[in-house]
Design a protein that fits this description.
- The complex is a heterodimer.
- Helix content of chain A is 38%, strand content 19%.
- By secondary structure, chain A is α/β, with parallel strands linked by helices.
- Chain A is globular and about 90 Å long.
- In chain B, a hairpin with a 2-residue loop joins strand 7 (251-255) and strand 8 (258-263).
- In chain B, helix 2 runs parallel beside helix 4.
- Chain B is an alpha/beta fold.
- The chains are: A alpha/beta, B alpha/beta.
- At the A-B interface, helix 8 of A face helix 3 of B.
């Protein structure tokens, strides 16, 4: 990786058995770097178990804005032999392994990787009967290796353990200091980064960022049933509910969750719920109900690898087909897939506005990689966004009332009927899941099939479906990175964009003519515009995290754009930039061979 | 006439185990202990039907401790899965493909999330159809596997990830537990019992007694949860014992609908002897003592036992509030 600007980037990985405190150590180093002016993105390689096994925490920090997991590993801290064996092959030249020779035997290591031996357990035993502080010692050692001010770590330790007895934080700080000093004696810092200690950025997962954005956008009703990796949203909502004036509803299953969300929205609240694929499957019938009653709802699916319970703590972008096919028959829906935590924050208000403006279900697709499994630093968030509640009336226009009933489903020029809150005088209406007329009254019983009523069914169905044409105009086109007219064009969506964007930098340095098209608004698609934009693309390569190239198939279905080259990953792990780079280099070789 | 039980003292606990040691569940898991004891009585011919929950991670590579069959179903539908298995076996028996003497036992195994919440409808249907099966609910009083969120089995006062004690709601969870025993009883199954591994002989006898009935045999076992409740894993038996001794976890059974308490403490211990040992209740003691919450928990326990003692005519000394 000699071409890389190694003095602006750090990738590091801590590995251990579950229960060794690797996640809190990882979060601590994340804090250290994000408080030192760096942009940071992390990934938590955890397993669904309590103890044992193998877990790791990956950190990528850069002086420039990044959301990807970076290239390889500059610093590996394996607390167990398995952690070394699993990860050493990814070590970058010029990097280092920081290890305890008692726990880890080094083998087959690239000679250009430095070995930094520190008696982690022995040092930890100075401060406690059990060597539980060995991860703190390792963090101290790491700070010396990357040349960051040890005081930033001390402060992070203080924050972490501040609520426990003072001795806990004090001993951890001493342990970290010992590790720091020991490495300082062995080597100069391997990184020469200009840290800026006056810049601190908060780090958050997309789950948290979305929750924050939703509440800021006026979400006052949140419903959930426990399911990883969506649970962090409900944890955050529940612990801030009273303070922020949100009602958090915990249902007995996802059917109840979805119906409660519809009920709250019907009664006028901005309402949202979240789950993962399995729970979403249960919500589907009710989402059709929201569509038929034209009740605005925002539903979040934090995708994990399936099918069925699949891999609860691993990632996937495999639920897109389910979103396109929710429930029975045709109805309009919106699918948004923010690419990173910051975009998730801004997606929430957009989702509510779209839902209320068009009275449709809006689906936000996150995934484990950014939702629960990884943090990213965010720049100052702008809370001043537009809130549009759509055609929500408190007094009926004369044409829409007969003095008692309200024409809730009136046919209008823009296909959107004015809406009201139940209880509004002169605005009684029935929200019917059977096909209905403009007043909400049933067409399914004595009127169904009668020739006078066939046109009403047709018009009601058309009115709902035609909203898609208006929604389309609000959908963002793909964001393009890299030179126009490149030989190779990467097509990607959602969180996969992060690795692609990082890979582009490296590919450009290698002189590869490549650009990328990142989609974050998925459906409805502005098919003509998308086709026009992609007509400028080179050889298209689809990059996504599922087996069947679900997004590429959507592109073909909607815009008639056909892609024949794919990088698809479905082993549960997120995409790393080097994998994209490798695939593109191989593609270029093929292309040249043919040419 | 009372059944002559094989299990009279702890010495009668079968040595044989159908679960290998060294699995990947949390150390000190009370749910696992219940599964182990249950299996000892039923023997090896068991097919477990499991809905998502902590026991799902029992079958983790390479530490699968099972010597019996196991079917996963959707979260909401384990009893429906059991119905399919039982019906298929009955068809095979009818066709003469397997002998009538086959004694495969179909056991639904779920946590309280599935039993009290999402799977209640499916259980209701199975009991209504008089399905010949066992239901073992390991009740750790929250969604343990996903990070200890509140379930409708969570007791008043417990902190969970979704009912954290906050200044405006300092008690933690304020909703009362569902009474699943009574919900099940209203369906008229032949046998229902509550269990705790800490009263081992009582536990084994109830499983033994249930097996003499054809139809739904339903069990709710308290499942001490070191991770969620917050106590030292070695103390699971002590915690569960305290739950029984304070009267918080009554041990009882209902045979053909008739309820009888099988363990009646002579004098109840104060509930705070139990509450104070667990971090999920620490906010009731620190930084300030929430007297009113503790008192109301005690009052609920007293009320329960007062009514039970009148109904079944036994003596019990309550705790003054």
């Amino acid at each position: 990786m000699s071409e890389k600007d190694s003095d602006a980037e750090i990738t590091l990985r801590l590995g251990a058995a579950a229960g060794d405190g690797i996640q809190s150590a990882g979060e601590m180093i994340m804090k250290v770097l994000s408080r030192s002016g760096m942009h940071v993105t992390t990934y938590n390689g955890n397993q669904s178990l309590i103890r044992g096994g193998h877990v790791w925490f990956h950190v990528h920090a850069s002086t420039k804005k990044i959301y990807s997991l970076g290239y390889g590993i500059d610093f590996l801290i394996p607390l167990t032999q398995l952690s070394y064996d699993q990860h050493f092959e990814k070590l970058n030249q010029g990097g280092a392994v920081i290890y305890d020779p008692v726990a880890v035997k080094i083998h087959d290591l690239d000679p250009k990787v430095m070995q930094i031996s520190v008696p982690l357990a022995d040092i930890a035993l100075k401060y406690d009967k059990r060597p539980i502080m060995k991860n703190t010692v390792a963090l101290g050692s790491l700070c010396a290796a990357i040349g960051v001010d040890i005081n930033v770590l001390s402060k992070a330790i203080q924050d972490q353990f501040g609520r426990k007895e003072p001795a806990v934080a004090e001993n951890n700080i001493k342990a970290a200091m010992d590790g720091y000093e020991m490495v300082k004696k062995q080597t100069r810092p391997l990184k020469n980064i200009q840290y800026n200690y006056s810049v601190r950025r908060p780090a958050m997962t997309a789950d948290y960022a979305l929750a924050l954005g939703a509440v800021a956008a006026g979400c006052r009703f949140y419903a959930a049933y426990p399911m990883s990796p969506a649970s962090p949203i409900v944890h955050w909502m529940a612990s801030h509910a009273k303070k922020l004036g949100i009602t958090v509803f915990l249902g007995e299953d996802e059917i109840s969750v979805m119906n409660a969300t519809i009920g709250a929205s019907y009664a006028g609240a901005r309402a949202m719920c979240a789950t993962s694929g399995g729970g979403f499957a249960l919500m589907q019938e009710a989402i059709g109900e929201a569509a038929m009653t034209e009740t605005p709802v925002v539903v979040v699916d934090v995708m994990r690898a399936g099918p069925s319970t699949g891999l609860p703590t691993k990632t996937s972008q495999g639920d897109l087909n389910m979103m396109l096919g929710i429930s029975q028959d045709d109805f309009p829906r919106v699918i948004l897939a923010p690419r990173n935590p910051e975009e998730s924050f801004y997606t929430a208000p957009r989702a509510f506005n779209l839902a209320e403006r068009y009275q449709v279900p809006v689906i936000i697709l996150l995934d484990f990689a950014i939702g629960d499994g990884g943090y990213s630093t965010v720049d100052n968030l702008n809370f001043a966004f537009e809130i549009d509640r759509g055609k929500l009336l408190s007094t009926p226009p004369p044409a829409y009332t007969n003095g008692y009933w309200f024409k809730r489903f009136a046919i209008t020029d823009d296909n959107i009927s004015p809406r009201s809150i139940p209880g509004t005088p002169d605005m009684m209406f029935v929200a019917k899941t059977d096909e209905h007329d403009e007043w909400g009254h049933d067409l399914s019983d004595v009127l169904a099939g009668l020739k006078e009523y066939l046109p009403i069914r047709r018009r009601m169905h058309e009115k709902r479906m035609k909203k898609l044409e208006e929604i389309k105009k609000e959908m963002k086109l793909p964001e393009i990175y890299g030179p126009s007219g490149a030989d190779i064009s990467i097509i990607t969506w959602g969180s996969s964009s992060n690795a692609v964007r990082e890979a582009l930098h490296e590919l450009h340095k290698k002189g590869v003519s490549v650009n990328s098209f990142e989609f974050s608004d998925i459906y409805p698609m502005q098919e003509d515009e998308v086709r026009k934009i992609l007509s400028t693309a080179g050889i298209m390569v689809d990059v996504e995290v599922n087996y069947s190239a679900q997004f590429a198939k959507l592109l073909k279905r909607e815009a008639g754009v056909e892609i024949n080259n794919f990088f698809l990953k479905y082993d549960g792990e997120p995409i790393y930039p080097e994998e994209v780079e490798k695939h593109i280099l191989a593609t270029r070789k093929e292309v040249h061979a043919i040419a | 006439m009372e059944l002559q039980s094989k299990y009279k003292t702890l010495r009668d606990v079968p040595q044989i185990d159908y679960l290998a040691p060294g699995g990947s569940l949390c150390a000190g898991c009370g749910g696992l202990l219940a599964v182990r004891l249950f299996h000892k009585v039923l023997g090896k011919n068991v097919v477990w039907v499991n809905a998502a929950g902590c026991m799902t991670i029992m079958v983790n590579y390479p530490l699968v401790p099972l010597k019996s069959n196991w079917l996963y179903t959707a979260f909401a539908s384990a009893p429906a899965g059991a119905q399919g298995i039982r019906d298929a076996f009955d068809i095979l028996i009818r066709k003469g493909k397997i002998p009538e003497s086959e004694d495969l036992k179909v056991v639904v195994l779920t946590g309280d999330g599935a039993a009290y919440d999402i799977g209640l409808q499916s259980t209701s249907g199975a009991i209504y159809r008089n399905l010949d099966f066992y239901y073992l609910c390991y009740d750790n009083q929250a969604y343990g596997n996903t990070g200890f969120q509140v379930s409708s089995a969570t007791p008043v006062g417990s902190a969970t990830a979704t009912t954290p004690p906050v200044p405006s709601e300092p008690a933690g969870n304020i909703q009362k537990r569902k009474d699943l025993f009574e919900i099940w009883r209203a369906h008229n199954p032949p046998y229902i019992a509550t269990l705790s591994s800490s009263y081992t002989v009582d536990f084994l006898r109830k499983v033994e007694k249930g097996s003499t009935f054809k139809g739904p045999k339903l069990y709710i076992s308290l499942a001490g949860c070191p991770t969620g409740w917050g106590y030292d894993p070695r103390e699971t038996i002590r915690e569960e014992k305290l739950a029984v001794e304070t009267g918080i976890w009554p041990l009882k059974e209902a045979v053909e609908g008739k309820v009888k308490h099988t363990v009646v403490p002579r004098a109840l211990k104060p509930v705070e002897e139990y509450l104070a040992t667990q971090s999920r209740y620490q906010h009731l003691f620190n930084p300030v003592r929430r007297k009113e919450v503790i008192r109301s928990i005690q009052e609920q326990v007293n009320l329960y036992w007062e009514e039970a003692s009148k109904r079944e005519d036994f003596e019990i000394k309550l705790v003054n509030t």
